Automatic annotation (TrEMBL):
Residues 393-459 form the Mechanosensitive ion channel MscS domain. The keyword Translocase does not apply. Pfam families: MS_channel_2nd. This is Small-conductance mechanosensitive channel. It is found in: Membrane. InterPro entries: LSM_dom_sf (IPR010920), MscS_beta-dom_sf (IPR023408), MscS_channel_2nd (IPR006685). SUPFAM superfamilies: Sm-like ribonucleoproteins.
């Protein structure tokens, strides 16, 4: 018992010692930074040794009691270019005292807030403790006092810089809201990127005055000029590609590529020139910049994706179109398998390029940080909308990939679709392009080839059993037709196995009987020609036999229904 109590006392003493050491380190770190955290009984602020702003701790020429008051009074002072008064809103603690230029920093910060930072006035709290009274109870920050508030952000080359407000208090002073010391420290670097360009600085002061909204007069004039420069570059690109296309043979590979990239390259010329002119000469600001930046990015990404996909599509179509006859050859299963798999891989690459482009667009344009996007995403609305809108397209894409890898219908296969004999020319994302025997093109949805059955005549063996059916009189002598049929199948060049040929009576009714003549052909093309010749030959034989049917005892070969009716009519007339 004695050692147990000693062990417990020793453990308690060790914990107390560790907590004391941690507290000492925290106090030392706070002292080095010049800031401490207020206790529970004090306002929720950053406590500083001295308020280092342009006005000093003794004066507050601006309304710094709330974030809303800070922004309103700062922007009003900036509009009047009263930088000495507006400088009270800047915490200069992180700026070297020997290099401080408060008025210059204040002017630069005002320019950034006026032209480049998109913040929502409605979300700025008008309370000293910055409690958000507009949010719902589900928000984890609902009813929570804040001493730091992020109102916007700007992108530098390697990081995102937040624009933050902080609530600070000096000894003996009142708590005030100011632009945080980290934000003020980053102002020169941000101004170098988002501030006026050399071209803008060289313009007359009258053109740099505000016209309306947040636009200066020079921006009102520059915007149509930028659009004109982009349109001119697009027109020249379009004409140049058109001239190159006219110099090429329409069956050449280069002609197909130029035709495919014609419109995407024109779009890229417009968007690229638009972006280059803006970056070099005209640095637009405010809502116009917020609107043009994502639009410009969308156009550039769409053009690049369009060029990449068009080139892939053109090269694949050129390769398959140059080998159409070879692909349709009966024994060319290897090439049909290869091009069908390449078609599936092409579609997979296309989907990957599209997804990569969309992902890059979302990341680069920072769309996910917008208020509307966040609300829809948090509620799941955006996902439901996208899934509902794309369910048919995604289903068709998966069906086309399924067809290509399962090879139920390969490029070059002969199939029977909707009662027509066709060749598969192309397997697309949402449709198959079929070429009929008479050179027509059918566009069939891919879902028809995964949900419904169809005939594939070249899946395993290209040879086909062709058949001809003739309706003959019930008195016809079928045996008299078998020898002419046997002579045909043994002498026709397209019949591959005369032993499989058959002549059979397959149906009969009171009017006539149906006789079927069957013979095997090497492939559908040869089979169709043989099928027609077989019908002609057997009709000729039946006609020759039928011509002697009136001489007894020769039987009739074609139904005599019409002649019998005519004879009965004549007999009735004679009796009448």
């Amino acid at each position: 018992m004695h050692w147990g109590r000693m062990g417990k006392h020793h453990t308690s003493f060790t914990r107390a010692l560790v907590m004391l050491i941690c507290a000492l380190f925290a106090v030392q770190a706070a002292a080095q930074s010049g800031r401490t955290v207020a206790s529970d009984s004090e306002p929720f602020v950053y406590q500083v040794e001295q308020l280092q702003n342009a006005a000093g701790s003794a004066q507050t020429p601006l309304d710094l009691d709330t974030p809303m008051g800070l922004m309103e009074s700062f922007m009003r002072a900036g509009e009047k270019e009263d930088w000495a008064r507006a400088g009270a809103a800047l915490d200069l603690a992180n700026v070297d005292p020997a290099e401080r230029q408060p008025e210059q920093l204040t002017a630069q910060l005002y320019d950034l807030m006026h032209r480049s930072v998109a913040f929502d006035w409605a979300t700025l709290p008008d309370r000293p403790d910055a409690v958000d009274t507009t949010t719902t109870s589900k928000d984890p920050m609902s009813g929570v006092a804040r001493r730091s508030l992020t109102i916007g952000q700007l992108e530098l080359s390697n990081r995102t810089v937040p624009i933050r407000l902080a609530r600070v208090q000096a000894p003996g002073g009142e708590p005030v809201w100011v632009f945080s010391r980290q934000t003020v420290e980053n102002v020169p670097a941000l101004y170098a990127v988002y501030g006026p360009s050399k071209f803008e600085k060289s313009l007359p002061p009258a053109l740099r005055e505000q016209a309306f909204w947040t636009l200066a007069w020079w921006e009102v004039i520059a915007l149509p000029l930028i659009l004109f420069a982009g349109a001119l570059a697009a027109a020249l690109t379009y004409l140049a590609i058109s001239r190159l296309r006219r110099r090429q043979d329409e069956d050449s590979k280069l002609y197909g590529v130029l035709q495919a990239i014609h419109l995407p390259a024109t779009l890229l010329a417009f968007a690229g020139t638009f972006a280059l002119v803006r970056l070099s000469f005209f640095r637009l600001s405010g809502p116009v910049k917020d609107l043009l930046d994502p639009l410009q990015l969308v156009l550039i990404i769409a053009a690049i994706i369009g060029i990449a996909l068009s080139v892939i599509e053109a090269l694949f179509d050129f390769a398959t179109s140059q080998r159409t006859d070879e692909l349709e050859a009966p024994d060319n299963n290897a090439d049909r398998n290869f091009y069908t798999k390449m078609s599936a891989i092409r579609r997979i690459i296309t989907v990957m390029i599209l997804l990569a482009g969309i992902g890059f667009l979302l990341v680069a344009s920072n769309l996910s940080s917008t208020l509307g996007f966040s609300i829809m995403a948090s509620a799941g609305i955006l996902g439901l909308v996208l899934a509902f809108a794309a369910r048919k397209v995604l289903g068709d894409i998966m069906a086309s990939v399924q067809i290509a890898f399962a090879q139920t219908a390969r490029i070059g296969d002969a199939i029977r679709y909707d009662g027509q004999w066709c060749y598969v020319e192309k397997i697309g994302f949402t449709h198959l392009r079929l070429r009929t025997w008479d050179e027509r093109r059918l566009i069939a949805p891919v879902s028809d080839f995964t949900n419904d059955s169809f005939e594939n005549w070249t899946k395993e063996d290209a040879s086909l059993m062709m058949h001809v059916e003739l309706e003959l009189d019930n008195r016809a002598d079928v045996d008299a037709l078998r020898q002419p049929f046997r002579d045909f199948v043994e002498n026709d060049e397209d019949v591959v196995d005369p032993g499989d040929a058959q002549c059979e009576v397959v149906a009969q009714n009171a009017r006539a009987m149906t006789v079927r003549f069957m013979a095997r052909a090497a492939d559908p093309k040869c089979g169709w020609a043989m099928h027609c010749r077989l019908r002609e030959r057997m009709l000729q034989v039946a006609s020759e036999l039928d011509a002697g049917a009136d001489r007894e005892p020769a039987p009739a070969y074609f139904p005599r229904e019409r002649e019998v009716r005519m004879d009965l009519t004549r007999a009735d007339e004679a009796q009448g």
